[in-house]
Amino acid sequence: MVFEINEGGRTKIGAISFVGNNAFSDRRLGDVISTKRSNILSYVLRNDIYDEDRLRADEEALRRFYYNRGYADFQVVSSSAELDEANNKYNIVFTIEEGDRYKFGPITVESTVEGVDAEQLKRAIETQEGNVYSAKDVEDTIIGITEQVAGAGFAFAQVTPRGDRNFETRTISVTYTVDQGPRAYVERIEIRGNDRTRDYVIRREFDISEGDAFNQVLVQRASAARGAEFFTAVSISTAPGSEADQVVLVVDVVEKSTGEFSIGGGLRDRRRMALRASRSKRRSPSKTSSGAGSTSGLRRAAAKAPAISCCLLPNLISSAVTISVPLAGAIATSPWIKSSISGSLTYSTIDDMNNPHEGIHAVAGVEVAGLGGNAQFVKGTARVSYYKTLLEEQDVVGVLIGGAGHTQGLGPTGLRVFDLTHSHDRMIRGFAYDGIGPYIDPDGAGPLAPEHLGGTTYFNASAEVQFPLPVLPESLGLRGAVFADAATLFGAPGPFGRDRQPSCHGAPPPARRSCGRRRSVRFGFDYAIPVLKQTGDVVQNFNFGVSTKF
After folding, report:
1. Residue 60's domain spans which residues?
2. How far is CA 152 from CA 16, 141, 156, 422, 430, in A?
3. pLDDT tens track for 378-388
């Protein structure tokens, strides 16, 4: 028996349109849904495949988008897909009714549980009278009240919101009622679908564990967190336990693919162009790897395994006409071995990691070297990003970013040039990689100068306004931006690899301490113009990069 199969061409999505939208443009709503039009990146992203389940998820995404922006009467009338057989493409149409926009009316809290003071619960309220109605604010208030009540010892209390809509004033008054719920306990938590990710990565998202009182609000909160770093979807259901007061939580996850493709390039001083491309795969914490401790909710701590690197450099002291003194000194003391352990803590309230519009993303990390080998130092870094929608209908987002880092040498050997921090485009744009900071003077280091050494300390800040690009399709995920960056990088080891001159100023040639501030501004598509620079800086006006995970 022989089966002959003709697969035919791959069906694509030709167009996505919306009918009935007045408050938001098709482009803005296209950012909300996961289904995208076919484009040059679709072969990698695979987000242009028509799927009825994805269409239902897109409907829910549209509802939440409108509910969180005051449109409490919003509804999706229909979503349809018509196949254009001639072009082998689907045309998808969402028909919606936006309704009126509401604000919050009076907000009250009531309690039927003896010992629970309703007045004290008001400090957990996220919904304020006069603000634009938001379903997310209501959910956050329910979670806040639930946690406060549970923390006071009432583990089985339930919080229920009741809305009273006034069509004339277009306001919604909300009353949060605290009642005594049924007594039930979590017998066990079953996790399914995690072929690569260890159970603890998922369990740390829960604020409850086996044996605790069952609370539906805290369970849904864990589901909303979704473990976005490693999963595309998380669904939580319940099943009866072995006893009447026992509940089994069943957690089904869909793991993300963990490969990455990126391409980038830049133009330095309008004379030299560089192009690079890379393809990599990363692994989520596997079931066979060791893991660090964990935290709950959105606060996560992830410890990295000890990293050992070795730098075996040939003896090139004879060519010290062409090699800087610090590097020559480092070469003379080769081989050089570094053994370090590092950890990081992340706090995030970002609404969408792929296309953030609201929230804070903060990362703090520390690396300690000296458990073995030659390197002995402690390095600390921190970076905070704050996103805020400035113009909702036009999809304009403001971003404020601040960062800092410092490396402190330990022991008698001090710091070597290999231990220092080098500048990059996440620190300041408009300058080449390792293009600012302490450097070797051209008069004292030969034709390869200026040669930047890196620094022990840096500070950087950025203000940015992001907006959609009207010419390019939104499915490409590209946005325009106007920004202003400022950064400083200073502190370098002495001529022979020791930190003999920690001061930024007064160092004699050839070792310059170029530690002044830099500023750059960007117009259009990733073209930055330094407006304040120091002697020895290497400018790179143009830079681009495209990256995707698969």
Report:
1. 12-97
2. 50, 17, 11, 50, 54
3. 999 999 999 99
